Each structure stands twice: as C-alpha cells, then as structure tokens.
C-alpha cells in the first residue's frame, strides 16, 4: 500500500512539474521570439528536475523532500530574458545567439545559487536567511506573483505584455478572447484549490483541460519546426546581467531555506539545516550542468507526499520515470498542453503567491506598508537589484527611527541629602540597552528633564551603564551632558563595569568609577524611588525577521 501511495504521489508531483516547466519553457521561447526553442528548454528543465530529485533523495536527511525549479528565480530570469531580447533585437542578433545567451544565463544563475548555498552551509549561516526584512521579502514574493500573472496572460494571448508598457496591452479581438480563456482557467484552478486543497485536484483539472481541448497541430510533430544550433553567446549581455543573476540566486537561497526549515518543523525530522543547504547547493550544480535555472525544495509538494504516506525512493523513481517519459515524448506532451492551460497555471500560481504574501497587510504598520509598496514598485518598474537595495535602505531607516524612540532610562532613584553634612542629594540613573546615534540626543534631553525635576541645585548625578552599548555619538552626548551638569552645578559621575568602555569614556574627559551595586534606597522612609517599565531593547535580528519591534 505504501508503494502505491508513493507511486501516486510521484505521478502527481511529476505532473505539476511538467505543467510548470512547460509553462516556463513557453514563456522563455516567447521572450526569444522562437518556437523552436520550446522543446529544448522543456527537456533541459525536466532533466534538471530529475537530476535534482536523484541528488536530494540520496543525500537529504529530511524524511521527504521534493525539489523543483525555483519559481521566483524563474520570474527574474524570464523578465531578464524579455528585456535582453528587446535590447539584442536592435543589434540584429540571431535566434541561435539569443538561445545560447539564455542557456548560459540560466546555468550561471544556478552556479551562483549553488555558491550561495555552499557558502551558507560552510560558514553555518543558514539562520541568516531569516534576517531579510519581512516587508522586503513580502514585496519580492508579491511582485513575483504579479509578474507570474502577467506572464500567464502573455502566454494565453500569445502576445508579450508588460506592466511598465501600457501600449503592450492593446490587443486584437482574438488575443483578448485567448487572454480571457487563460484568466478564466487560472481563476477556476484557484477556486477549486480553495475548495479542495489537494494537488491531486490540480492534476485532475490539468489532465481534463489537456484531454478535452484540441491539440496544437503546429507542435504535434517536430518536422515543421526549424532546428537551432548553439553558437557563441553574447558575453557582454551576460556580464551586464550578473547583478540580476546574483539577486535571483540569493532570493532562491532565501526561499529554499525557509521551505527547508518549515518542512523540517512539519516532519519533526531534526535535520541539520547546514547539511540540507549543502545538498541543495549540489542540486543547483546538477541543474547548472543541464543549463537549467536554480532548484529549491518545494514545500507544498513535499507536504503532500508526506501526507500520502509516500516513501523516498519509490516516489523518486516514479517522479524520474515520469520525467524521462515527458522528455522522450516532448513534442506530444507540448502539443497536448494548450496556451490557455499554460497561462492559467501561471495565473493560478501567481495569484496564490500574491495572496499568500499580502495576507498580513492589515497587520503591518503604516511605515511597513510604505516599505512594501516602495520596494514592490521598484521591483516592477526598475529591477530586482534596485528593489532589494531600496527595501533594505528603507528598513534600516525605520530601524534607526524606532531605536531612537527607545526609553533607555530603566531605573531612577533619588536619595535625599543630609543637611548636617551639607549634602544636596543624589540622583542615580541606570542605563541598559543600545545607546547609538539615534537615541543619544533624546537621552541627553531626557536626563536634563529628570535632573531639573528631582534634584536640587548642588546635588550629584550618577549614571550606571549596566549592559549598555555606546557608540561615538553616545560618547559625545554624555560629554555634552557632563559640560551642562558642570555649568548648572550638578557633579556627574559614571559607573561602568567594562574596562574598555571605561577607558573610552575617560578619553572624553569624564570621571568613571567601578560599577556601583544595583540601585536600592538607603533610607526607605525618606527616599523617592521610581522604577520605569522596562522596555525591550531594539533587537536587530528580531526586527529584520518580522519587520516589527
């Protein structure tokens, strides 16, 4: 029974991979303006998936992991192929050179992704994948979903559409009808999958659409298609696209790492994240050998196979056998899948990706929504590298602003003076947290208010730097506070337990002594004691993981 479930899971996941690879091969061949490249691209993508399945099945320590082409990376490569083709068409580059340039671009992106995976595993930096700000990651995934929808509509209408070019949306009556069929099929897939959340439903709908729709006579045989020969690529275009390829590799690594961690938690496997990253990097090397794009672990397919009780090797053998048959009968396979079916598949995946990452829109603060929208617009209108840069800069500015609003005055105690000894009182303040340039000036103003409010002229001030981090701006703010205290007649002393920080403070001309014990009023009946509510210090990793404090 388990073998039957494994074979069924392998056939279902293989059918999904065939549909997605056929859609992307059609998309890339449309970008290259040559139908002859479609069968070659489909075969290479299926070979990359089968090789990745073999490598992951033999080396992964997860209970069950199914690799596939990384969809966000494919979106970036498809957009890159479209823009490169438009540029190279003006230079009268042959279709053979365009195809060679695309294949080298795919292989280099997979090699870069493999390098990122292997470096992350070597330096045990897999957890750094969580450090990408949530608005940036959500904007990238939502943008990828929107581009998938546009690409799906382009395949359905057999016309290249672009978000930034409104003139590309002027379609003829036949193209509008084809676009409507693709959009309707994508919405049908979305509604059916929302009602019955099982990939078997997706496979059944795809099979019915392929069997009930007439086959394409233009692709039924390969005799009427011109043959393409691989020639030298346009290296200048490849070198110019290296930043975009690097961004696609990094995003593939981040997405796959998130899927691996989620899959490990769902399966209770206790697998080593760095080992899984290493295996994914090796799988990307195998994809590069097939001139394919980066591959990653597919979360939904892996969870499906696990819920069906599938075993690793029977599933892998079934998947690879189905993939080999698809490569062998590539012309028949591609002729059965109509453009509106391929377009509808991309529309469905795009809508799923778009809704998944915009689902938490209401939970985001206004500033985070602004970061998400700004990053998303930069992704769509400029390029992915500029989008990541804008998102990171905006997130850093938001972090600095929130850090500047932190209240670092943890405990304030006022000890009354002794009139017999001519003592005017002592104000003790404890500082804990990160005191950087953002909060240094605010701290200076806060301390002035506290001193004027609770301490008579001539009283002493003692600052206890307990587990506090200071930068040069904070040093300067404390130096200004010391000068102000001297002018107003409030002697200032600093208590610090770290020798390095104490020596830096002395270089700024401040008096520093060993840290005093924790604040405790010596005269309970005559002491005004006030404890501030402890606020959480700004945590950089927590902010980058969630986008919020």
Task: Give your account of this protein's structure.
The chain is an alpha/beta fold and 549 residues long. The chain contains 20 helices and 8 strands. A 6-stranded mixed sheet has the order 7-6-5-4-3-8, with helices on one face. The chain has a two-stranded antiparallel sheet with strand order 1-2. It starts with a helix and ends with a helix. Residues 217-224 and 516-549 have low confidence and may be disordered.
| Alpha-beta classification | alpha/beta
Q: How do the SSEs run, as a string of H and E?
A: HHEHHHHHHHHEHHHHHHEEHEHEHEEH
Overall pLDDT: 81
What share of the residues lie within helices? 55-70%
Q: How does the major sheet shape up?
A: 6 strands, mixed
Q: What is the straight-line distance between the termini? A: 50 Å
How do the strands line up in the largest sheet?
Answer: 7-6-5-4-3-8
Helices and strands, with pairings:
Blueprint: H1 2-31, H2 37-59, E1 67-69, H3 71-89, H4 95-122, H5 134-157, H6 173-195, H7 199-212, H8 235-240, H9 242-267, H10 273-289, E2 295-297, H11 299-307, H12 312-328, H13 330-336, H14 339-358, H15 366-381, H16 384-404, E3 409-415, E4 426-435, H17 437-454, E5 460-470, H18 472-488, E6 492-496, H19 499-507, E7 512-514, E8 528-531, H20 540-546
Parallel strand pairs: 4-5, 5-6, 6-7
Antiparallel strand pairs: 1-2, 3-4, 3-8
Helix pairs in contact: 1-2, 1-3, 1-5, 1-7, 1-12, 1-14, 2-10, 2-12, 3-4, 3-5, 3-9, 4-9, 4-10, 5-6, 5-14, 5-15, 6-14, 9-10, 9-11, 15-16, 16-17, 17-18
């Amino acid at each position: 029974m388990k073998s039957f479930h494994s074979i069924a899971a392998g056939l279902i996941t293989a059918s999904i991979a065939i549909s997605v690879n056929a859609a992307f091969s059609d998309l890339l061949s449309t970008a290259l303006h040559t139908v002859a490249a479609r069968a070659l691209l489909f075969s290479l993508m299926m070979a990359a998936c089968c090789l990745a399945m073999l490598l992951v099945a033999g080396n992964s320590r997860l209970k069950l992991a199914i690799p596939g082409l990384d969809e966000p990376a494919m979106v970036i490569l498809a957009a890159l192929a479209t823009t490169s083709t438009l540029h190279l068409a003006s230079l009268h580059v042959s279709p053979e050179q365009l195809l060679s340039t695309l294949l080298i671009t795919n292989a280099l992106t997979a090699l870069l992704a493999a390098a990122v995976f292997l470096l992350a595993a070597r330096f045990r930096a897999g957890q750094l994948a969580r450090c990408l700000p949530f608005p940036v990651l959500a904007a990238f995934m939502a943008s990828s979903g929107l581009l998938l929808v546009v690409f799906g509509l382009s395949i359905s209408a057999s016309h290249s559409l672009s978000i930034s070019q409104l003139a590309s949306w002027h379609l003829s009556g036949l193209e509008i009808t084809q676009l409507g069929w693709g959009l309707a099929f994508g919405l049908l897939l979305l509604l059916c999958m929302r009602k019955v959340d099982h990939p078997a439903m997706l496979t059944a709908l795809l099979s019915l659409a392929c069997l009930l729709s007439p086959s394409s006579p233009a692709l039924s045989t390969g005799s009427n298609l011109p043959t393409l020969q691989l020639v030298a690529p346009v290296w200048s275009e490849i070198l110019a696209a290296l930043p975009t390829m690097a961004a696609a590799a990094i995003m593939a690594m981040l997405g796959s790492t998130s899927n691996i961690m989620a899959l490990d938690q769902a399966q209770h496997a206790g697998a080593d994240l760095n080992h899984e990253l290493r295996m994914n990097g090796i799988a990307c090397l195998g994809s590069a050998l097939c001139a394919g794009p980066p591959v990653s672990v597919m979360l939904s397919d892996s969870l499906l196979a696990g819920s069906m009780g599938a075993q690793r090797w029977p599933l892998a053998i079934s998947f690879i056998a189905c993939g080999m048959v698809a490569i062998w009968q590539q012309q028949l396979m591609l002729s059965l899948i109509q453009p509106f079916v391929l377009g509808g598949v991309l529309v469905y995946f795009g809508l799923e990706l778009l809704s998944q990452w915009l689902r938490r829109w209401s939970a985001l603060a206004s500033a985070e929504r602004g970061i998400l929208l700004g990053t998303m617009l930069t992704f769509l209108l400029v390029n992915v590298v500029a989008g990541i840069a804008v998102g990171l800069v905006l997130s850093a500015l938001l972090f600095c602003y929130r850090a500047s609003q932190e209240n670092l005055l943890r405990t304030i105690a006022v000890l009354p003076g002794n009139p017999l000894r001519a003592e005017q009182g002592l104000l003790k303040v404890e500082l804990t947290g990160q005191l950087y340039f953002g909060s240094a000036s605010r701290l200076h103003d806060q301390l002035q208010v506290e001193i004027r409010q609770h301490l008579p002229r001539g009283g002493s001030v003692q600052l206890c730097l307990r587990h506090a981090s200071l930068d040069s701006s904070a040093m300067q703010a404390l130096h200004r506070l010391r000068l102000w205290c001297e002018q107003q007649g409030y002697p200032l002393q600093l208590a610090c337990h770290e020798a390095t920080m104490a020596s830096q403070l002395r270089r700024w001309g401040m008096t520093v002594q060993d840290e005093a014990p924790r604040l405790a009023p010596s005269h309970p009946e005559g002491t005004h004691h006030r404890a501030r509510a402890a606020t959480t210090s700004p945590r950089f990793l927590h902010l980058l993981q969630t986008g919020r404090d």
